[in-house]
C-alpha cells in the first residue's frame, strides 16, 4: 500500500512569504506528527494530531507556524512570514495509534532565501 | 530539558566489520526507545521499538539492547554491508506521544 506522501519535495521561497506543506498519511492511521530537521541535528518535534485535533502543539516554535488536519487524514503545515532560519527538512509521520512506531514521509526540503 | 545523545557522530567501517553505537536517554519517565534507519534520499524507517528493561531485539544482522535503569541502548550491526550505510537515529518516548530524537550516527560502509 501507499506510504506517507509529502508534497512538495522541495520548496524554495523568499523571506517574508507564506508557504504550505502537505502530508498525506497512511490510510487508517489516526496519529500524525510533524517534525523539522536542521542540518546536523535530529528531527525536532513540532506538533501531534490524534484524529482531527492537535493533541500537542508544544513544539511549534512561534505563532508563524500553524497546522491543520480538518478531516483526520491529510494535514497541512502553514508557515507565515518565512525567515531564513525556517530552512530545514520538514518531516511528516503517521502511526496506527499513539505511542506506536512512526511511518515517515520523505520530507519537504524548505529553503528560504 | 530532555536530552538524547548518540555516539559516535559518524563512523567509517570496512565491509564485513561489525560495529555498534550508543544512544543515551533520560532514565526517568521512560516509556519506549525507538531506533530508525535513514538512508540518503529515502524516508526514515523504523527498526525497533523497545519498552522493557533488558529487552533485546534482532532484525537480520542488526540487533539492539536496552537498559532503562541506566538510560542507554546499543545498536549492533554484524558483518556490515555497503547497503547498511545510513544515519541511525534513536528516539526517546516518555509516553506523551512525541519522540525526542538524538542527532544520529552516520555510518559509512566501504567495499
Please supply descriptive tags for the structure shown above.
heterodimer, A: 113 residues, mainly beta, 7-stranded mixed sheet, 49% strand, B: 111 residues, 6-stranded mixed sheet, 5-stranded antiparallel sheet, 11 strands
Q: What characterizes the major β-sheet of chain B?
A: 6 strands, mixed
Helix/strand class of chain B: mainly beta
Total DSSP helices of chain A: 0
Q: Give the DSSP E fraction of chain A (strand runs of 2 or more residues).
A: over 45%
Q: What level of helicity do the residues of chain A show?
A: under 10%
Roughly how much helix do the residues of chain B carry, as a percent range? under 10%
Using DSSP, what is the number of strands of chain B? 11
Shape of chain B: globular
Number of strands of chain A: 11
Query: Averaging pLDDT over every residue of chain A, what do you get?
Result: 94
Determine the N-to-C terminus distance of chain A: 37 Å
Structural write-up:
The complex is a heterodimer of chains A (113) and B (111). With 113 residues, chain A is mostly beta strands. Helices cover 0% and strands 49% of the residues of chain A. Chain A contains no helices and 11 strands. In chain A, strands 2, 4, 5, 6, 9, 10 and 11 form a 7-stranded mixed sheet that branches. Chain B has no helices and 11 strands. In chain B, the strands form 2 sheets. In chain B, strands 2, 4, 5, 9, 10 and 11 form a 6-stranded mixed sheet that branches. The A-B interface holds A 3-4, 31, 33, 35, 40-45, 48, 50, 55-56, 58-59, 91, 93, 98-107 and B 4, 6, 31-32, 34, 36, 41-46, 49, 89, 91, 93, 95-104.
Topology:
The complex is a heterodimer of chains A (113) and B (111).
Chain A: E1 5-7, E2 10-13, E3 19-24, E4 31-37, E5 44-50, E6 53-56, E7 65-68, E8 75-79, E9 88-95, E10 103-104, E11 108-112
Parallel strand pairs in A: 2-11
Antiparallel strand pairs in A: 1-3, 3-8, 4-5, 4-9, 5-6, 7-8, 9-10, 9-11
Chain B: E1 5-7, E2 10-14, E3 19-24, E4 32-38, E5 45-50, E6 56-59, E7 62-67, E8 72-77, E9 86-93, E10 99-101, E11 105-110
Parallel strand pairs in B: 2-11
Antiparallel strand pairs in B: 1-3, 3-8, 4-5, 4-9, 6-7, 7-8, 9-10, 9-11
